[in-house]
Amino acid sequence: MTRLDAEVEDAPLAHDGAPGPVLELLDAREVPLGGVRGITVHRTLPQRALPMVGAWCFLDRFDHDSAVMRVLPHPHIGLQTVTWPIDGEIRHRDSVGSDVLVAPGQLNMMTAGYGISHSEFSMPEIPAEMHGLQLWTALPAADAHVAPFFEQHTDLPVHRTSGLAVTVMLGSVADTTSPATIFSPLVGADAVLEAGAHATIPLDPGFEHAVLVIRGSLTVAGTALESGPLLYLGTGRDDLEVASDTGARFVLLGGEPFDDDLVMWWNFVGRSHDEIVEAREEWEGASDRFGTVSGHGDARIPAPPLPTVRLTPRRRRRG
């Protein structure tokens, strides 16, 4: 998906940045997606209180009972996009020749690397129920300019314990590992907890983690959590206790704290102002760097104007 806000902000952690467990609740904000005929999404990453969770640098939730998604071709660099529909199907087309439908329970992942462009349309193109997540992971510096590629996984592994089923999108939960390609240690999982159940999810204590409830109510590490905000858990946890009286569906994100200072603007993740400027100029100039997405003619999303100040990295305050 594309960002239309392209905001620039300093982004220190709300706590002191020292390692260890925390419980920090972060509200989502509404953001328009896809222009006049687009939809509104709820964004919990990035924001001032928390720019990243591991390599996860972007998290949008779309939650509509009747809507149409029409996101025209737009570019990306330096990241992976992770598309996770919950209700409704999405058609993905990109400049490396992909043209696929992704359905609930299936994973679309696109590695932008040096540069790629893509479009996303809900199917069929009429108002319908549409719920899901769009996430980005930042590529580490050594892999930021890899050749772009796309992968789809339609049969993901599930970690099961009594009353709990955890679909592993990326990385591993216990001994259950996703086949999706990752470039830094991280985890992304979609979990369903039965009503009245109590369960323990094993975690890597070297990761920082966060939880987003999709449906229902959940108690996480003794903290009541409703659908909407993101609960940041910090590092140093060997496991996570979850419980629900009503039943709940939630997403667990985590990864090793990402030390690179990133410049994030619009759909680009880079390391410097000049890198972002160059990518924008090449997109606006229709260079070969981003290729073309078939089926749209000349239609595309133009880049917003750059700010009048130099873009600076989103630095995390460290203890």
Question: Explain this structure to me?
Answer:
One of its GO terms (molecular function) is metal ion binding. It is a single chain. The chain has 319 residues and is mainly beta. It has a single domain (21-255), classed as Jelly Rolls (Sandwich). The protein contains one helix and 26 strands. It has one helix spanning 273-284; strands at residues 21-26, 29-33, 39-45, 56-67, 70-76, 79-87, 89-94, 99-102, 107-111, 116-123, 128-138, 149-153, 158-161, 164-170, 172-173, 176-177, 186-193, 197-202, 208-216, 218-220, 223-225, 230-234, 239-244, 248-255, 263-265, 268-270. Strands 1-22-19-24-17-14-13 form a seven-stranded antiparallel β-sheet, with no helix packed on it. Strands 2-3-4-11-6-9-12 form a seven-stranded antiparallel β-sheet, with no helix packed on it. A four-stranded antiparallel β-sheet has the order 5-10-7-8, with no helix packed on it. The radius of gyration is 19 Å and the shape is globular.
